[in-house]
Amino acid sequence: MKHIKYIVFMITGVIFHSCSDDFLNPLPETAVAVESFFQSDADVLAGVIGIYDALQGVNENTTTNIGDANRGVQFEHLLTEHRTDNTRNATLEGSKSDFHRYVVNANNVESEDYYQSMYEVIFRANNILGFIEVADVENQAKYAAEAKFLRAYAYFNLVRLYSDVPLVTEVVGPTDNEALFTRIPEAQIYAQIVEDLQEAVNVLDNSAKARASKAAAQGILAKVYMTQPNKNYSGASQLCEAIINSGNFSLESNYSDVFYDELNDEIIFAVQYVAGNSAESQSFSSEFTSTFRQGIEDGQNIVNDNLVADFVAYGGNRTEVSYVTFNTTSEVAKFLPEGTDLSVTPPDYGLSARDAGNDYIALRYADVLLMHVEAAIGDGTSTTDIGALESFQKIRDRAFPDTAPNTVSSVSKTELLRERRVELAFENQRWFDLLRFGVADQVLSAHAEEMGYVFSSRALLLPIPAREINISGGLLTQNPGY
Question: Which helix (H) or strand (E) element contains residue 383?
Fold first, then answer.
């Protein structure tokens, strides 16, 4: 995948990066260029790979200004982990520090970039769907399902962070403001997400980990079922069981291998990066190396003390892989850049820390096992379901191999949320977990009080970027309280 992506990068960059300010459609002249480009199956495949390129985003360690390029998922930790009790920014200054203090406004550039990045994914998917018939007949269904999976993935992120957003499922004219900027109710957006993911489940196989697959669609759809207003725990359970029973995935015996043996047996879907290549690498790994490399006043994902306490009590062998403490500062250790050596003082973070190649893990098997437990609990407070207990037991046994088997007889929702916290810390899941479990207001209010922040329920949604509202001429409305 990394090799394919590199080959088509220049082609897709020319086609897609000249889009207009609304990020949902190309300028007319670009549309003509795209129409003339898609002439063969190889062209359509290049376009499909281009959707992943939008998800991957542009490394912040480039000369491109933030307003000129989309960073894809590379800022996602700011919009998710930093808004929870897990992590924070090192400084109180700058737009990146607004997230952990719950003071994000409509002009925040990182939120704006993420919003635009997800719509760039949606635009590219919509564009490819208009040219599917150019592809070879035997590939058309797969390419369409792949594009729809990525569109659904982007919309799932948007609806959870911003609520009602414009729902665009085809390329429309750049002046069609009603289609581009009318906010659509969450229920309709979820209906489209479900439809797209169901098609992906029915069409795709499990031959890929860095591209859409049947299991990736099943796993994301299971999470959608448990997130949408009308929750479908039975459907989520069936999807998780289908992944478990497929035999295609398993937990890595060594927790460290999950993050440093890329595309291992536990990975279901990951966004890939290439180390040392400014066009294909990521910068978030370097941002987590706060104490020595970034400096104590300029780091991200600084680990909060209450998360450290949970790791001490419940982390087991996940603890030393997840974070490292220097003096009084704890920083993320899951995504250390290639060549990192923590045994020396100061640590050596390799030759290309700002051009790191660590993959972004979107979905892994441990998450599915824990979702299986969540689906079994449903609207209740605990479960004794045998299958769910087996799933939970696997996670516990890996984390505490010296005490296994330590048989679990029941799992409460509180225990599950805590287990998800230490298992998936720094993987941008905590924010969505708190929302899905219905405890975000309670947990974050207590966290804010402890840290001296001011939190209100309006912070459960991010503001619609002011730039998008301005482009719409006021047609796009703002979230309450902003």
Answer: strand 382-383
Packing angle between helix 41-56 and helix 109-129, nearest 10 degrees?
A: 170
Q: Can you tell me whether residue 92 is helix, strand or coil?
A: coil
Question: How far is Cα 478 from Cα 462, in angstroms, rounded to an integer?
Answer: 10
Percent of the chain with pLDDT over 90: 81
Q: What are 270's strand-pairing partners? A: 361
Q: How far apart are CA 115 and CA 469, in angstroms?
A: 12
Residue 67 confidence (pLDDT) above 60: no
Query: How far is it, in rounded angstroms, from Cα 465 to Cα 150?
Result: 22
What are the backbone dihedrals phi and psi of residue 324, each rounded to the nearest 5 degrees, phi first? -135, 145
C-alpha separations of 288 from 111, 261, 354, 439 in Å: 19, 20, 11, 27
Helix residue spans in 247-385 (DSSP H):
257-260, 284-287, 305-314, 319-322, 365-377
3-state class (DSSP) for residue 10: helix
* DSSP states of 417-473: HHHHHHHSTTTT-HHHHHHHTT-HHHHHHHHHHHHT----GGGGSPPPPHHHHHHTT
Amino acid identity of residue 456, one-letter, is: S
Residue pointed to by tokens 């993987």: 427
Q: How far apart are CA 297 and CA 307, in angstroms?
A: 21
Token representation of residue 400: 């505490």
**Positive or negative CA dihedral for 194, 134, 131, 73?**
positive
CA-to-CA distance for 395 and 244, rounded, in angstroms? 13
User: What would the pLDDT profile of 106-127 be if each residue is shown by its tens digit?
Assistant: 999 999 999 999 999 999 999 9
Q: What angle do CA 151, 157, 163 make, to 5 degrees?
A: 110
Per DSSP, the three-state class of 22 is coil
* Mean of per-residue pLDDT scores for the chain: 90
Residue 279's CB is within 10 A of a number of other CB atoms, namely: 16
* Calpha distance 169→24 (Å, rounded): 10
Alpha helices, DSSP H, located in 130-185: 137-162, 177-181
Share of the chain above pLDDT 70, in %: 90
The reply to whether the predicted model has a pTM over 0.90 is yes
What is the sign, positive or negative, of the torsion defined by CA atoms of 95, 99, 103, 107?
positive
